[in-house]
C-alpha cells in the first residue's frame, strides 16, 4: 500500500477542550448581571443568532464548528511540525489514528479510490466525531446571554454562545450536499458520462430478442427509482445525523433542568457516556453510508473479478 500517514496528518486530529463552569451573563439595557437561570425552557430546533458581522448572521452552531476546525488545524500542525521517520509520542498517536482510518476506508472503497477520496471521508469522519463530542463539554449550551425586555419571548430568554454543531440542520445538510456534489464528480470521473448513465439505466447481463427489450424497460424503471434515491440521499443523511444529535442534546438538557441541584448533575451523568458512544456511531454511520454510495456507483466488472480471485 502506497500510503504514508505522515503525508495525511494535516487535515485530521483529535479534540481537547477545557471544561468551564456554567455561568450565564445577563444583557439588558446595556448593563450585565449574573442570573441563576442557565438554560432554555426547551432546546430550540434551530441554531440561534448571537451576532452579525457585516450584516451576516453568526449562529452559535457556526461558532462551535469554527472552534472545532481551529483545534483540528492546531493539532495537525503540531503533529507535523517536527516530523521524524520513526514517529514517537504525539506524532505517533496521530499517525496511528489516520492510518487506522485509512485502512478502514480502503476495505470499503478499494486501494485506488481511497487514494483519491480519503481527504474527504477521513476529514468528514473526524469533523463529525469531534463536533459531536465537543457538544458534551460543560459550558456548551449553558454559557450565554439572558435576554430581557418587553419584546422578549418569556420562553426564549437565553442565547447560548455555543451549540452542538450537528444539532443544527444547516450544518448536516451542508455536509450532505457537499458529498452529493463530490459523488457526481467522482462517479463521472471514474465511469465517464456514458458509463455513469449506463450504470444506472442499462440492463445488467447479456440478453437477446424480446428479453432484451423487456430488460431495457425493467432496468429503465429501476433506474428512475435509483435517480429518486440519489436525489433523496442528502435529505436522509442530514436528518439522520441531525435527529440523533438533537435528540441526545434535548434529553441531556431536560435532565439538567431538574429543579434541585443535587440531582441535576447526577442523573444525566451516565447518559453522557452513552452520548460519547452515540457520537462515535453517528460519525461512523455517516462516513460508512457515503463511502458505500460512492463504491456502488464506481464498481466495475473487473472489481468483481478481483474480489472473486
What does it look like?
It is globular, with a radius of gyration of 24 Å. The strands form two sheets. It has a four-stranded mixed β-sheet, with no helix packed on it. Strands 3-4 form a two-stranded antiparallel ribbon. The chain has helices at residues 60-80, 89-109, 111-134, 169-201, 209-256, 261-264, 269-297, 301-308; strands at residues 24-28, 31-34, 49-53, 56-59, 144-147, 158-160. A hairpin with a 2-residue loop joins β3 and β4 (56-59). It is 61% helix and 8% strand. By secondary structure, the chain is α+β, with helices and mostly antiparallel strands. It has eight helices and six strands, in the order ββββαααββααααα. The protein has one domain (5-308).
Helicity range of the residues? 55-70%
Distance between the termini: 19 Å
Overall mean pLDDT stands at 78
Multimeric status of the protein = single chain
Overall geometry: globular
What about the largest sheet? 4 strands, mixed
Question: Could you spell the SSE succession in H and E letters?
Answer: EEEEHHHEEHHHHH
Task: Domain count, please report it.
Answer: 1
Strand order of the largest sheet: 2-1-5-6
Tell me what portion of residues adopts beta-strand conformation.
Answer: 5-15%
Q: How many distinct beta strands?
A: 6
* Gyration radius, rounded: 24 Å
Uncertain ranges: 1-39, 302-309
Structural class: alpha+beta
Specify the number of helices. 8
